[in-house]
Amino acid sequence: MRILLLGDYSNVHATLAEGFKALGHECVVASDGDKWKDYPRDIDLRREFGWRGNMSFLWRLMKALPQMRGFDVVQLINPVFFELKAERLAPFYRYLRRHNGKMVLGAFGMDYYWAYVNSYERPLRYGDFNFGDTIRTDKEAELFRQEWIGTPKERLNRMIAEDCDGIVAGLYEYWVTYKAPQPPKGEGLRDVVKGLFEDKLTFIPFPIKMPDTLAVGSYAKTGVVKIFAGISKSRSAYKGTDIMLKAAQAVQEKYPDRLQIQVAEGVPFAQYQEMLNTSDAILDQLYSYTPAMNSLLAMSKGIINIGGGEPENYDILGETELRPIINVLPTYESCYEEIEKLVLHPERIPLLQQQSVEYVKKHHDYKKVAQQFLDFYHTL
How confident is the model at residue 195 (pLDDT cuts 50, 70, 90)? Predict the structure, then answer.
């Protein structure tokens, strides 16, 4: 099978491509490398700033288009699959549709359905856009709503979702979002369309390539629990890292000889990995039900994830035994309580670390995941 993967987030497509190739299939990744993260790709679609960067990008894109023909499957990382304005992407989608086989849309991150459904339908108890029946009004949530609802991005997302042959959700949350009733067309006063995407929707976990060696950790050597937090200033409040870090710091003040905190903020990826590899646990994604790529990569190294591990996450995977994630509710009190428990009962660490590796190997191994994608493609 010949597969074209367009765009990338957090190394999802680059890792999936490795799985396809390991199984004997031809796969091409065309992406910008997820910007500064610079993940591997076969066709470089990085866009630089300024008019020279724009011209260079457009020239490379037009030159690459003939290479994007004749594939059995084209999978988009997002409705915005090239670094172009949404209103300019529809002709490129139609070109790809005309010159290839099946079209698959990835539900792997921010898009119209994620923003709208979680703001107004609210199928999740909490998340990026709601706490129960309360709509989040923090700056980034509002910006995403303004970017995706009632805009060209909404229209593009709707068009692709309705036209494509299949939709793949990478997390339980995204799967629920695309199962929800479609909201009203346009800006909202028409009749609600109750048709679902269930006839073309599937859930497939994110792919992870297991590391050759496990993280060295800290507790086994020093008797001090070391917790890692990666900070992105622009998204700390939106993702809840600020609350998790404050809770960890409060626990550290109470038990200064038992807990050490490592904070990575704006450091190069290699240094980030070094800091992570000497940690026992990672704080990540307070408002998530499930571990995403960053947490899964940590877990694959034997690092405990303190974050999203709701029952729905295990249920959709069919997992009834392993429980490696320290699940926290989206409150300061829950974070404090769970971090304190880990510090006071470090004897849990070896089992949680072992289960973390087993969990990723069982559900997220890149070859197993690639085969799940192939099985889905054959049903289209």
Answer: very low
Distances (CA, A) of 20 to 96, 106, 207, 236: 21, 16, 11, 34
Around 101, how many Cα atoms within 13 Å sit in the side-chain half-sphere? Answer: 12
CATH number of 2-208+366-379: 3.40.50
Predicted structure pTM score: 0.92
Contact between residue 263 and residue 224 where contact means Cβ atoms under 8 Å apart: no
**Enclosing H/E stretch for 30:** strand 26-31
| Burial state string for 161-195 with b = 16 or more CB within 10 A and e = fewer than 16 | beebbbbbbbbbbbbbbbbbebbeeeeeeeeeeee
In degrees, rounded to 5, the angle at the alpha carbon of residue 318 between the alpha carbons of residues 315 and 323 is 70
The amino acid present at 241, given as its one-letter code, is T
The rounded distance, in Å, linking the Cα atoms of 325 and 13 is: 25
pLDDT tens digits along 43-53 = 999 888 777 77
DSSP string computed for 203-258: E-PPPB---SS----SHHHHS-EEEEEEE-TTTHHHHTHHHHHHHHHHHHHH-TTT
- Looking at CATH, the fold of the domain delimited by 219-363 is given as Rossmann fold (3.40.50)
**Domain boundaries, given as residue ranges, for the chain:** 2-208+366-379, 219-363
Are 194 and 182 a contacting pair, CB within 8 Å? yes
- List beta partners, residue 326: 306
